[in-house]
Amino acid sequence: MNYKSELKNDHIKYIYRRNEIRENIRTKINRKYDPAYIMMQKLKKAVVTFAVFAIITMTFALSSSFVTNAKSNHTTPKKKYYTTVEIKNGDTLTSIAKKYYYKKEYKNLDEYMNEIMELNRLESTTIHSGCYLKIAYFK
Asked: From first to last of its 139 residues, what are the pLDDT tens digits of the chain?
């Protein structure tokens, strides 16, 4: 082949490709007015809208059920009251603490005993019959 024929073939390929691109652009422009294309676009929008709505609804439903479960499992907190107890013969600080101990308000019995000791300004767990102890209880 000679140089001129190669140029001519390249030019023909260029024109063919340019016409192909123009036809694609025309097709895209004309497609906007095609009823089938318009219907497909509306369908896509409807599916996406439904999916988003379904996700939001499910998220709301799940979160509200967690809140409902949390509320139903929660009991109303008991109020803290104070009273005095007379120490009888044979009573120990531990035995009195066990009698009034409320597990939901204290980590363990020792924490409750420490509170009784602080309320009564006791330095040890030794108590004497005939005396009175101020204690906290819940009702």
From this structure: 566 677 778 888 888 888 898 888 877 777 777 788 888 889 999 999 999 999 999 888 888 766 655 555 556 678 888 899 999 999 999 998 888 887 788 888 899 899 999 989 998 889 989 999 999 888 8
pTM above 0.85, yes or no: no
Tokens of 119: 């309320």
CATH of domain 80-138: 3.10.350.10
Domain boundaries, the chain: 3-71, 80-138
What distance in Å separates the CA atoms of residue 126 and residue 133, rounded to the nearest whole number? Answer: 12
Contact (CB, 8 A) for 88 and 129: yes
